[in-house]
Write a sequence for this structure.
């Protein structure tokens, strides 16, 4: 495993983010690792070493989590991390692990490699080893990159922006207004519409508003 078998100060954090007992991806721990890595460019190498150690784990569940963590770091930790990934050491280790991976793990590795090569690493000469590795593996026709799902995973998703939050709030307000309008129409069109019915409509308006507010 070369340099990727060495222990680093990130081992505990990465192991926590890729625990065998996790029933789903631990995004809180994953983002903690990303934050710690991006806080100092010198952390990139140690973080990558720790992740690659977990990618060599015997449990495929751990390996899948490690791939998710690696993809998240590539999406969020900047150029310093990209340079560590675009190294000969990483390329050799990635190919070694890909060659022994189970089909589901292999497909996931091909998926993220394709996205890296066509995305963050595509137009930077300093990162050329990743597009070159992708092209080489495709040319060999040993791995099928055409059937992998190339949609961005949750690891590449950003946290909701202020504009997203505003849009969601506006949608909630629109839904509330529609519910109130329908309620008042029903009261108005009722055969027994009277002052008492009007009073009931106001009460129903309040009930509808409270009901919708509780939903949102």
């Amino acid at each position: 495993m070369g340099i990727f078998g060495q222990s680093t100060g990130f081992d505990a954090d990465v192991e926590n983010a890729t625990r065998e007992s996790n029933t789903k991806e631990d995004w809180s721990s994953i983002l903690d690792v990303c934050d710690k890595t991006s806080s100092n460019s010198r952390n990139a190498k140690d973080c990558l070493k720790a992740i690659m150690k977990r990618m060599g784990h015997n449990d495929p569940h751990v390996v899948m989590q490690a791939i998710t963590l690696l993809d998240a770091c590539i999406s969020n930790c900047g150029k310093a991390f990209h340079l560590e990934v675009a190294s000969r050491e990483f390329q050799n280790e990635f190919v070694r692990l890909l060659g022994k991976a189970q089909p589901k793990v292999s497909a996931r590795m091909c998926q993220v490699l394709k996205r890296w090569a066509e995305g963050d690493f595509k137009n930077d000469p300093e990162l050329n080893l990743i597009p070159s590795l992708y092209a080489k593996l495709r040319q060999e026709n040993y791995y099928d990159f055409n059937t992998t799902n190339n949609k961005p995973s949750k690891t590449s998703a950003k946290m909701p922006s202020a504009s997203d939050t505003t849009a969601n709030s506006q949608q909630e307000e629109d839904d509330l207004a529609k519910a109130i309008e329908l309620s008042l129409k029903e009261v108005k069109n009722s055969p027994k519409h009277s002052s008492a019915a009007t009073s009931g409509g106001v009460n129903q308006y309040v009930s509808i508003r409270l009901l919708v507010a509780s939903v949102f």
About this structure: Residues 162-188 form the longest helix (27 residues). Confidence is low (pLDDT under 50) at residues 148-166, 192-216. The chain is about 70% helix and 0% strand.
